[in-house]
Amino acid sequence: MEIQFFLNDLPGNDFNQLFRSLEQFKRSAAIDPKGNTLPPYYVSGLPNSYYIRLFPRQSVHLFHSSYCLHWRSQVPEGLEGKREVYLNEENMYITNNTSPLVVKLFQEQFRKDFSLFLRLRHEELVFGGQMVLTFLGRKNEDVYSGDLNHLFGLLSESLQSLVVKGLVEKEKLSSFNLPAYGPSVGEVTTSVKESGVFDMASIKLFEQNWDPYDDSEGDDVLDSASSSVNAAKCIRSVMESLVTSHFGETILDMLFEDYTRRVANHLKKEKTKFNVIVLTLKKL
Ligand SMILES: C[S@@+](CC[C@H](N)C(=O)[O-])C[C@H]1O[C@@H](n2cnc3c(N)ncnc32)[C@H](O)[C@@H]1O
After folding, report:
1. 207-238: b or e for each residue (b if 16 or more CB lie within 10 Å)?
2. To test ligand 1's pocket by mutation, which of 9, 43, 120 has the most ligand atoms within 8 angstroms of CB?
3. Domains of the chain by residue range
4. Closest residue by CA, ligand 1 atom 10
5. What spacing in Å lies between the alpha carbon of 96 and ligand 1's midpoint?
6. What is the mean pLDDT of residues 34-40?
């Protein structure tokens, strides 16, 4: 058997960095302590959005999407752009005081995007081809209680504090909404069933600590100061380009210093965890 991998990301991704890191992977993969040898494999880059067709029809055996599908194709339709009345003022995602209308816009964007993704990949898979999809979601059906609500809620609070200090315009914050949504297992299952073209072999939810270096189980944060620094750095690496393109880069350090303090206070009260959904699908 020979294997061809295509590594997909948006065109703005640093593919040079990716291919440089692959060199190290190849070296470590070549030394297998058990003496196993890998089949010949070939790796290519695939710079494009997964919300369009990426491959010829019926040409792919397996898709694996890792920590991506919580990103939408765009800010929920109806929330984007400049407007007279901002629907999700002061917040970038769903918080306790978000109106049902705004929640509906986030959910509709998820349904539209996820069904599009399923349709596109279905066309590209060979008959019997499979997908393993891993992405951030939420544990409860209650749309207000996910950990992403906390995570982005704290970042909204940090931005609000910069508005109070006169460092960010109120309008700028009001027009900032995230192209993201963390669905529940129920919402994902419904979308797969509605697509009618995949058999869902399994769906599971597991939890992962906000601090990527904390592998401990249980609900105690051992060191909220260092855990908050690690968690905030992780969020900064994901959010920096979105924040920069909307607010400019001058606020970045201040914003994430404030955010780190808020995450530390939050972790003192509760060890919030990412809820990660993993599902396997087989093309019908
Ligand atoms: C948290 S990273 C995950 C990276 C890697 N797959 C992993 O598991 O470590 C999420 C990635 O999704 C990419 N992404 C977001 N929307 C995308 C889209 N529509 N098409 C392709 N890639 C996308 C981002 O550019 C980012 O590199």
Report:
1. eebbbeebeeeeeebeebeebbbbbbeebbee
2. 9
3. 49-283
4. 68
5. 28
6. 84
